[in-house]
C-alpha cells in the first residue's frame, strides 16, 4: 500500500514532528523533520536514529491513531508531498539482515583502549591536569601527611591494644549501640581486617559469632556471644556480670 502523494506539493519551509520506530527494536523516538526533505534524505537522517543503512530501509507511514497510511517508496518525493502531520509515525523496516536488538548491543562494538604510556603523555588529560596542579594523588605533601596520620593512628591503636590484658573484664562502648559487658578473649591483628582488634565474649548473646571469623578461630565462646571491636571502644576494669534478677522470677 502506497501513501498517497499530495498533488502539486511544494517543498516549503515547514516541519513536522514524527515518531520514529524500527523493526529492530521496540522503542519510539520523537523527531522533527523538514517537510522539504526528500525520502532519500530522510532515510539518511534516520540512519542516526535506528542504525539501519539507508540503502536497506523500507519506510511505512502511520497516522497519529496508528493507522497504516502507506509506504514512502519514492526516494525523489518530498516528505511534505505525503499526508504527514504532527503525531504521525514513520516505521523503518530493516532489510539488511540485522538481528533484533543488534544495533543496541554495545558489547559487539570494538572499543579502543589507549595504552597507559600514551595516555600519560596527553597534555589535555585529567591525569595531566592533576599532575600539573599537584592535586589528588599527585600532591606529594598531602600524601606524606596522610601516611604520617595513618602511622600515628596505627601506633595509638597498638598502644591501646597493649593496655588490654587478656581475660580481664571490660565495658564495650560502640557509637550508636548500647554499652555491653564482657571478657577480653583476644587482642591483636586479624586476617579479616587490618589494624588491631579486640575479641570480646559478651555476658549476653549480643554478639555476632562464636569467636571464629572465616576459617580461623580466635577464641572460644558460645554462638552469638562473640564480637570484635576496636581497642578504643574497650575499657578494662571491674565490671561484674549484671544481675537481671532472673532467678527471682517464678
If you had to describe this structure to a student in words, what would you say it looks like?
The protein has 250 residues and is of the alpha+beta class. Helix content is 20%, strand content 26%. It has four helices and twelve strands. A five-stranded mixed β-sheet has the order 2-1-5-3-4, covered by helices on one side. Strands 11-8-7-6-12 form a five-stranded antiparallel β-sheet. A two-stranded antiparallel ribbon has the order 9-10. The termini are far apart.
Give the SSE map.
Elements (H helix, E strand, L loop, with lengths): L14 E8 L2 E10 L4 H12 L6 E6 L5 E4 L17 E6 L21 H6 L4 H8 L6 H23 L6 E4 L7 E10 L6 E7 L9 E2 L2 E2 L8 E4 L4 E3 L14
Parallel strand pairs: 1-5
Antiparallel strand pairs: 1-2, 3-4, 3-5, 6-7, 6-12, 7-8, 8-11, 9-10
Keywords: Chaperone, Cytoplasm
Protein name: Tubulin folding cofactor B
InterPro entries: CAP-Gly_dom_sf, CAP-Gly_domain, TBCB_Ubl, Ubiquitin-like_dom, Ubiquitin-like_domsf
Structural class comes to alpha+beta
User: Per CATH, which architecture of the domain at 15-94?
Assistant: Roll
Task: Report the CATH superfamily of the domain at 15-94.
Answer: Phosphatidylinositol 3-kinase Catalytic Subunit, Chain A, domain 1
Task: Identify low-pLDDT runs.
Answer: 7-12
What is the terminal separation in angstroms?
A: 91 Å
Q: Predict the CATH topology of the domain at 15-94.
A: Ubiquitin-like (UB roll)
Keywords:
250 residues, alpha+beta, Ubiquitin-like (UB roll), SH3 type barrels, 5-stranded mixed beta sheet, 5-stranded antiparallel beta sheet, 4 helices, 12 strands, 20% helix, alpha-tubulin binding, Ubiquitin-like_dom, cytoplasm
Amino acid at each position: 500500500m502506497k501513501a498517497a502523494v499530495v498533488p502539486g506539493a511544494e517543498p516549503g519551509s515547514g516541519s513536522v514532528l514524527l515518531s520514529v520506530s524500527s523493526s529492530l527494536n521496540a522503542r519510539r523516538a520523537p523527531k522533527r523533520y523538514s517537510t522539504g526533505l526528500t525520502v532519500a534524505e530522510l532515510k539518511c537522517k534516520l540512519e542516526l536514529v535506528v542504525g539501519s543503512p539507508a540503502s536497506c530501509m523500507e519506510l511505512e507511514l502511520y497516522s497519529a491513531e496508528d493507522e497504516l497510511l502507506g509506504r514512502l517508496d519514492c526516494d525523489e518525493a518530498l516528505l511534505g508531498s505525503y499526508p504527514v502531520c504532527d503525531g504521525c509515525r514513520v516505521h523503518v523496516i530493516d532489510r539488511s539482515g540485522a538481528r533484533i536488538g543488534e544495533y543496541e548491543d554495545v558489547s559487539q562494538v570494538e572499543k579502543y583502549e589507549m595504552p597507559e604510556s600514551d595516555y600519560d603523555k596527553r597534555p589535555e588529560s585529567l591525569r595531566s591536569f592533576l599532575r600539573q596542579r599537584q592535586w589528588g594523588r599527585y600532591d606529594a605533601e598531602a600524601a606524606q601527611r596522610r601516611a604520617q596520620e595513618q602511622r600515628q593512628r596505627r601506633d595509638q591503636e597498638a598502644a591501646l591494644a597493649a593496655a588490654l590484658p587478656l581475660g580481664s573484664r571490660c565495658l564495650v562502648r560502640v557509637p550508636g549501640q548500647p554499652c555491653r559487658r564482657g571478657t577480653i578473649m583476644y587482642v591483636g591483628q586479624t586476617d579479616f581486617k587490618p589494624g588491631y582488634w579486640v575479641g570480646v565474649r559478651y555476658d549476653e548473646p549480643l554478639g555476632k559469632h562464636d569467636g571464629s571469623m572465616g576459617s580461623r578461630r580466635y577464641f572460644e565462646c558460645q554462638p552469638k556471644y562473640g564480637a570484635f571491636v576496636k581497642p578504643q571502644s574497650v575499657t578494662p576494669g571491674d565490671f561484674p556480670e549484671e544481675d537481671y534478677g532472673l532467678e527471682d522470677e517464678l
